[in-house]
Amino acid sequence: MTRPREIMPQDVADALQREGLRAAYDARPPYQRNDWLIWIKGAKRPETREKRLNAMLAELRAGHGYMGMAWQPRREGKSD
């Protein structure tokens, strides 16, 4: 079963732009982008939303990690 694609909220788009991380976000697999948006949008309190947004930004800044889990981008030319 495929989950519907989430629409990026304006505050998330603004944060990615402000931090210069939009390209890093766009380079991630679609499932990661969608999961992050579901996770951020699902926060009940503004403080939780901000904490989740900052966690996503930190993982993008580091270039690895995905929602607190280990993740590394595929290296160019590497096949499975």
Low-confidence stretches: none
> How many strands, which pairing sense, and closed or not: the largest β-sheet?
none
> Terminal Cα separation, in Å?
24 Å
Q: What share of residues are in beta strands? A: under 5%
Mean pLDDT: 89
Overall geometry comes to globular
Percent helix range: 55-70%
What is the gyration radius calculated from CA atoms?
13 Å
Number of helices: 4
> Helices and strands, in N-to-C order?
HHHH
**Helix/strand structural class:** mainly alpha
What's the total count of β strands? 0
Secondary structure topology:
Layout: H1 10-19, H2 22-27, H3 30-41, H4 46-62
Helix pairs in contact: 3-4
Describe, in plain words, how this protein is organized in 3D.
The structure is a single chain. With 80 residues, this protein is mostly helical. It has a domain at 10-62. Helix content is 56%, strand content 0%. It contains four helices and no strands. The two termini are 24 Å apart.
Task: Describe the structure using short key phrases.
80 residues; mainly alpha; 4 helices; 56% helix; 0% strand
The gist of it:
By secondary structure, this protein is mainly α. The chain has a domain at 10-62.
